[in-house]
Structure formats: structure tokens, C-alpha cells
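On clarity, I found the account of how folds are encoded harder to follow than it need be. Since the whole study asks how a given chain folds, the encoding of that fold should be made plain. For illustration, here is how one protein appears when written out as sequence plus C-alpha cells:
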Amino acid sequence: MNDTTPDSLIPYDEIVQEALRAVVGRVLRQIERSGSTLPGAHHFYITFKTGAPGVSVPPHLRERFPDEMTIVLQNKFWDLNVGEEGFSVGLSFNQIPAKLQVPYAAITAFVDPAVDFGLQFQALGAGTAPEPHENAQNDSPEQVTEAGVEADDGSNVVTVDFGRKK
């Protein structure tokens, strides 16, 4: 029996990261549509890589936070603008207003402590291509049995049960 897991030719990690970042965009878009008013006690901590491609922060903030910074969207923010690739927002730092642009790919964490919800991400550069991988060789001779069915021991199948009552 082989205990090593083969490398996937499908970039599942990247697909999941992209889908979860879409959650952040959808939440921020909902806030933008409501006139930048957060419902109830909701507020967001958004952590991002300041040096990631596409991030725009004032020089004094980049100097203070050369790698990563966390912003809070709660009471005092303005000009929230949500796009397909990221968002921009106005915030105040020590009484000094600043405009920030953050691509979703730069985000490493999104937390809404009011409802104990959080997401963590692997930071990606905006526009970074996925890691190169081998092309899939569908129906290659060594993977097909005489009956024309792919030989598989079933070890790569994952069962997901979302608490369905049986």
C-alpha cells in the first residue's frame, strides 16, 4: 500500500482560496450598497500584506507596517469602493486621513468578531499566475484497464457529510 499522496493536477488550494476571498468581496459589496453602514454590532478586521502587488497605502503607513497591517472597518471609514479585484477605503490613522487600496489577493485574514466569524488566507500577489504543473494526460494507456475504465484504488476519494440525518 502506498502512503504517499500524489500531487494534484487540479489546483484545489488556489480554487478554495479564490472562493473564500469572494466571500470578503461579497460582504464588503453588501456594506457598500447599504451606504457603508454596518448592521448591528458587525465590524471587520482585515489583515493584508502591505508590500503585495496592487496595495496602495500612504508612505508613512508602509514605513510603519512594512510587511502586514490590520485595518478595522467599524465606525470611522468612508468612500468604501468595492470592485472585482479588491477594495478601497478611507480611514483615519492618528487623526490623519488616508486612502487605502487593497486587492483581495493581498488579504491574509478577515474577521467579524461580532459573530465569531473568520477566514485566513495564503497571501498571493495580484495577478500572480498559479504554480506551473504538468498537463493532465487523460486516458493515458497506463491508467486505463482492459475494460476501458480508469484503474483506481479509491484512495483519493473524500467523503463529505454535512451533518445530514440518516
The domain at 12-120 is CATH 2.30.30.220 (SH3 type barrels.). The helical segments are 12-33, 59-64. The chain has a mean pLDDT of 78. The longest strand covers residues 86-93.
